[in-house]
Every structure is written in C-alpha cells, then in structure tokens.
Amino acid sequence: MFRQAAHRLFTRSTIRRLYSTEVATDASSGDAAFVEAWKKVAPNIDPPKTPIQYMEPRPPTPSTLPSKLTVNFVLPYAAELSKAEVDMVIVPATTGQMGILPGHVPTIAELKPGLLSVHEGNDVKKYFISSGFAFVHSNSYADILAVEAVPLDRIDPAQVQKGLSEFTQKLNSASTDLDKAEAQIGVDVHSALNSALTG
Known about the structure:
By secondary structure, the protein is of the alpha+beta class. 33% of the residues lie in helices and 29% in strands. The strands form two sheets. It has a five-stranded mixed sheet, with no helix packed on it. It has a five-stranded antiparallel sheet with strand order 4-3-6-7-10.
C-alpha cells in the first residue's frame, strides 16, 4: 500500500501543468454561452459586458530576459502607474521587502503597510501603502494593487509622531480586546510610516 501511494505521488509530480500564459483562451465561446443564457432569462434587456471584453490579451512570455519591468500600480480610485517600464520595484511584502526585477519568477505576495519604491534609472518614486497584493507574471509584468497609497513627500513627519504617541497611549489604556486591536493597528501603521520617513 505504501508503494502504491509513493508511486502515485511521484508519477503525478512528473505531469507538468501549463501556465496561464501558455493556455489558449477562446473568449467568444464563453461570451456566446453567457449571452444565450442571459436572453433566456431576460429577453428584453441587453446583456452586460463580461470582464473578458475589457481585458487585453496578455503578452507572451519572452524567450530572452527583458531589460525593463512593466508595472501597473493601481488603487481603487486611480492608477498611479499604467504600463510604466521601470528598472525595479521594491514592495513591502508580509514576508519582508521584496525586490522585483525583469525576469522575476511568477509570484503573488500580500503587502503590508510600508514603503513601495519604483526605480527608473537614478529616479526613485516612493509611496507609502497601507496594504494590498503584488502579482508578478512570467512575462516581466507586475501588477501592484494597493488599498491606499500616498507619495512619501506628502506625509507630515510631525503628524506621524503625534499619531504614534496617541495610539501608543490608547494601546496602554485599552480595556477591551476590540480597543486593543484598534490601537495596535494604529501603532503598527504609524510605526511603518515613521520608519518609511526616517529610513
């Protein structure tokens, strides 16, 4: 029985799954099925557009290492960067600072409050982000989605120090678990802001 389980485990590991960039997608067949189902349910209302109709086809994975990384940095209300070609991006992942260069291995990383820096030659744009996700694709594209982001030069250090001391006092005087959790979040965010400004 152990041999059969080991055999199954090792034979499955030799099967290579395709990446999403290698799979041919036929958007028309999915959309046609959706439109047909929609017309059965609501024949008098035009069907809505599906997400695939708004998406551009993904560029193929290059055979050689590209010299630039294409970055999309998006907030819920604005796009800070759209298809910007840069040298490197450093994001504050929950596992630590993560540098993304052209040819980076495909990765999904959760972001924590901290400093995001975009490097283009000698020019460095710095943002403080609250949280989000970074998606690095095999074709040297990176999509960074943040809940909130502020350029670092727009943050007032005096207000950060004031907020840090206020939340530290709230944390020390908190009596309920909810008050402690709220105060701890405030301390964590203001500490990250302080280290981004001083570091």
